[in-house]
Amino acid sequence: MAPTTIGKPPSEPPRLPEWLGGLLCRLGVHQNHVIDASFGFAPGETIERVQCRRCGTVTTRRGRR
Ligand SMILES: [Zn+2]
Asked: Which of 19, 36, 55, 63 is disulfide-compatible with 49, CB 3.0–4.6 A?
């Protein structure tokens, strides 16, 4: 009788440890995602509000298309 191999349960996606995430935020490396985008004052200018997923810091950045 052939031994049946039981597959490993699917492993969770790799996540940064909390202390490492905090360290990166202290260094200014945030995990930003865009929460709001609007047009700037100048034509062709966009203003994006980004928030860090880890520490929640909201920053505004200006871009041009
Ligand atoms: Zn952060």
From this structure: 36
pLDDT of 28-45, one tens digit each?
A: 999 999 999 998 888 889
Bridge-partner residues for 64, per DSSP? 45
Measure 24 CA to ligand 1 centroid, in angstroms: 7
Answer yes or no: pTM beyond 0.85.
no
* DSSP character string of 8-65: PPPPPPP---HHHHHHHHHTT---EEEEEEEE-SSTTEEEEEEEETTT--EEEEEEE-
pLDDT at 59 over 90: yes
Rg (CA), the chain: 21
**Residues facing 58 on adjacent strands:** 51
Residue 21 CA to ligand 1 center (angstroms) comes to 8
